[in-house]
Amino acid sequence: MEKTTSSSSSSSSSSSSEKEKEKENVKIKKKEALGWMEWLRGWMYVAQEMLFQRIMASHLQNPLPLPPINELTCIVTGSTSGIGREIARQLAQAGAHVVMAVRNTKAAQELIQKWQNEWSGMGLPLNIEVMELDLLSLESVVRFAEAWNARLGSLHVLINNAGIFSIGEPQNFSKDGYEAHMQVNHLAPALLSILLLPSLIRGSPSRVVNVNSVMHYIGFVDPEDMNVVSKKRKYTSLVGYASSKLAQVMFSSILHKRLPAESGICVLCVSPGIVQTNVARDLPKIVQAAYHLIPYFLFSPQEGSRSALFASTDPQIPEYCELLKSDEWPVCAFVSQDCRPTNPSEEAHNIKTSYEVWEKTLEMVGLPLDAVERLLEGEEVKCRYGVSE
Ligand SMILES: NC(=O)c1ccc[n+]([C@@H]2O[C@H](COP(=O)([O-])OP(=O)(O)OC[C@H]3O[C@@H](n4cnc5c(N)ncnc54)[C@H](OP(=O)(O)O)[C@@H]3O)[C@@H](O)[C@H]2O)c1
C-alpha cells in the first residue's frame, strides 16, 4: 500500500516535473526568426531612412566640418569606392595620417595621386598610404594586422567600412568556408578589430567605428547557423546582408563591454543612410537605372560619410560610450545617418544571443575566447589563420 502510494506520488511528481520541463522547454525554445511585429517595425525603419533621411539630416553641413585631427592615424577599409573613399579623402584633407586598407592597391594609388594633385598648393601634401587587405581571406586580415602592429605605432581610429551586398546573387562562400556577406561585413572586420587592439591601446583614446546599416533592423542571427546553410531559413542576399550587419552590432556590443574604461577604446556602429554608391553594382541594369533616378532620396557618398566621420572625430563620443558602459546598457553606441545617437534594433538588445554571436565569431575567426583580455594584458595571441600557424 505504502509502495503504491509512494509510486503513485512519485509518478505524479515525475509527471509534474516532466510538465515543468516541457514548460521550461517552451520558455527557452530557440527563437528561429524575427517576430512579424519586429520584422514590420524593421522595415518601417528602412522605409523611414529611405524617404526621410534628407529631412532628418537637414541640420548637418555637407561636407561635415571636422575638428583638428593632425595627430590622428586612421585606417579606413574599402576606401577605393563610395563612402570609404570619401571618408579617407576628408580625413586626409583635414590633416590625419590615413591608411587605405584595400584589396585593389593600384586603384588606391591612383586615387592618392589624384587627391594630391587636387590638393597641391592648399597645404602640406596629404599624409596617406596604401596597404593590402582582402576581407574574403582571413589570412590576409592577419597579415595586415601583423604588418601594422610590427610598426609599433599608434592607431587612433579603425574604420571598418568595406562591405558587400551581392543583391540577387546566389549564396557564395569565402575560401575560409564562410558565407561571403558574413565574412566581409562581420567576421573579417571583427578579427581585424581584435588583432589591432595592441595598436589601438598605444593610440588610446582610440575608436573602432563600424559602418553598419539600417538593414540590421530586419536582420536575424542564429549563432548555430551563421552561414545560413541549415535550411531553417531560406538564404537570400538580403538575409545574408541583414544578418551580417546585425551580427556586427551584437559583436561590437560585447567588445564594447569587454574593453574596460581604462583602455580608452570606444566601439561604435554607424548607419551611413541610403547612399548612391557602387553597392548596387550587382543589381540588374534596369534596377540600377531606377536607383540612379531617385537622387533626391539618396545621399551622395559625401553625405553618407558624415556619420562615420562624426563617430571618428567628435570629441563627445568617448564620454557617451563611457556613459553607456557605466549604465550597463546592452548595446554599444549606434550613430544614425543624421549623426545622432540612436538605438539599434530590438534583436540587437538580446544580450544572450550577443554573447553567443561573440563566442561563435571568435571560434570562426580562429581566436581564443579570452583573446581580448590577453591582448589587454600585453600578451601575444595567435590566430588560427596566421601564416606561421
Ligand atoms: N550605399 C548604401 O546605401 C549603404 C547603406 C548602408 C550601409 N552601407 C555600408 O557602407 C559600407 C560602404 O559601402 P558603399 O556603399 O560605399 O559600397 P561600395 O561603393 O561598393 O564600396 C565598398 C568598398 O568595400 C570594398 N570591399 C568589398 N569587398 C572587399 C574585400 N573582400 N576586401 C576588401 N575590401 C572590399 C570595395 O573594394 P573594391 O572597390 O575593390 O570592390 C569598396 O572599396 C559597406 O559596409 C555597406 O554595407 C552602405
Explain how this protein is built:
Helix content is 46%, strand content 10%. It is α/β, with parallel strands linked by helices and 389 residues long. The protein has a single domain (38-377), classed as Rossmann fold (3-Layer(aba) Sandwich). The protein has an eight-stranded mixed beta sheet with strand order 3-2-1-4-5-6-7-8, sandwiched between helices. α5 (138-149) runs parallel beside α6 (180-195) and α8 packs across α13 (351-364). The longest helix has 26 residues, at 2-27. The model is unreliable at 1-12 (pLDDT under 50). The structure holds NADP nicotinamide-adenine-dinucleotide phosphate. NADP nicotinamide-adenine-dinucleotide phosphate (NAP) is lined by residues 78, 80-84, 102-104, 133-136, 161-165, 184, 211, 213, 272, 274-275, 277-279. It comes from Tripterygium wilfordii. InterPro entries: NAD(P)-bd_dom_sf, SDR_fam. It holds the Pfam family adh_short. Residues 17-26 have a biased composition (Basic and acidic residues). This is Retinol dehydrogenase 11-like.
